[in-house]
Amino acid sequence: MNIKPDGIYVDGTAGGGGHSEEIAKCLGEDGILISIDRDPDAIRAATERLKKYPQSRVVKNVFSNIKEVLIQQDIKKVN
Predict the structure, then answer these.
(1) pLDDT tens track of the chain, all 79 residues?
(2) CA–CA separation, 12 and 76 (whole Å)
(3) How far apart are CA 14 and CA 76, in angstroms?
């Protein structure tokens, strides 16, 4: 992926946070990453893995609710 440092990205299935971490590594302080998962174990794993990236947010929900998740996060569009 061609991640822009100030971009806004969504990982719809965070899982253990591996893909999210690779995105987060490329983001600058103005970038945002939303990682979504419904599995409590995945949420814990992704939260732990991403805690060193302040631009990341882990959300317990399902990808099909992405519109509502983005509204709750006050995000109007993503890269």
Answers:
(1) 899 999 999 999 999 999 999 999 999 999 999 999 999 999 999 999 999 999 999 999 999 999 999 999 999 999 9
(2) 16
(3) 21
**Residue 58 neighbours by CB under 8 Å, 6+ apart:** 14, 17, 20, 35, 37, 43, 46, 47, 50
Distance CA 71, CA 20 (A): 20
Q: Which residue has the tokens 């890269």?
A: 79
Please give the radius of gyration of the chain, using alpha carbons only, rounded to the nearest integer: 11
The answer to whether the CB of 14 falls within 8 A of the CB of 35 is yes
- pTM value surpassing 0.70: yes
> Which two structure tokens, joined as six digits, stand for 27?
């983001």
